[in-house]
Amino acid sequence: MGQSGDSASFIALVQATAGATGGVFAAFVLMPLEIAKTRIQLSHGGDLSTLGTMSNIVMDEGVQGLFRGAFAKCFETGSKNFVYFYIYDAINAIAKRHIELTTGVKLVLGYVAGVGNTIATMPLEVMATKVQAETKNGDGLLALVARVLEKEGIVGLFKGFWYNIMLCVNPAIQNTCFDRLKDWILMFKARAAAASSPAPTLTPLQAFALGAFAKAVATLATYPLVRLKTILQAGQEVK
Predict the structure, then answer these.
(1) What span, in angstroms and rounded, lies between the C-alpha atoms of 163 and 205?
(2) Is the pLDDT of residue 150 over 60?
(3) N- to C-terminal Cα separation, the chain
(4) How many CB atoms lie within 10 A of CB 169?
(5) Phi, psi of 177 (to 5 degrees)
(6) pTM score of the predicted model
(7) For the range 8-15, what are the long-range contacts, defined as Cβ-Cβ under 8 Å and sequence gap of 24 or more?
């Protein structure tokens, strides 16, 4: 039992490290889109396109404006991915030994992992959002932290907490959607392959496409809450 527990912990650690590394790389590469998304979400007019917003940022703040808060965002993403995947894989391995992992069970496990992740990393997300919302004349990360603590106390670092608790269903939907689609594709591949063939696997392109589709489904299902949370964390009023 001890060996099994150690193995499960090691697998969870490997999965969490891989998830964090991939998340940091993706966060840096997609930083301009993330900045534009945050600015659009904070815009009450809603008439700016992504390219239009990015163009305005470059004109007002230079190219570096598209990477504002890159360190904070990458650190936030890496931390969130590590914590989420570690908790999810750990409880998934434990649950697998006792119950059948149905779609409903996986959704619950994903939600539990999301709640644990939110409690552990919420201050990082709040500060990353505030940095992204700042213009070129805005404060740096440490100055923003000091300002939030002075004005709002430690509670200010957990602004939008209950939105995030509700949004924990987002990664649960994403992972469950991905796992189910992956199972169907692998089952189809296994049926089409010869009996002597090795166990089928997803190609990198298939895994990327499934991940993107699963994320799109989860985002569409929860976007209104995401926008309200962003407005609240940036310190603006919902209009």
Answers:
(1) 33
(2) yes
(3) 55
(4) 18
(5) -60, -45
(6) 0.67
(7) 8/89, 8/90, 8/93, 8/94, 9/90, 11/89, 11/93, 12/85, 12/86, 12/87, 12/89, 12/90, 12/93, 13/86, 15/85, 15/86, 15/89
CB 200 within 8 A of CB 182: no
Q: Does the structure show a pLDDT above 50 at 1?
A: no
Integer Cα distance of 60 and 78 in angstroms: 29
Of the candidates 221, 229, 237, 225, the residue with the CA atom closest to the CA atom of residue 44: 237
Write the DSSP string, the chain. -HHHHHHHHHHHHHHHHHHHHHHHHHHHHTHHHHHHHHHHHH-SS----HHHHHHHHHHHH-GGGGGTTHHHHHHHHHHHHHHHHHHHHHHHHHHHTTS---HHHHHHHHHHHHHHHHHHHHHHHHHHHHHHH--TTS--HHHHHHHHHHHHGGGGGGTTHHHHHHHTHHHHHHHHHHHHHHHHHHHHHHHHS-TTSPPP---HHHHHHHHHHHHHHHHHHHHHHHHHHHHHHTTPPP-
- The pLDDT value given to residue 128: 81
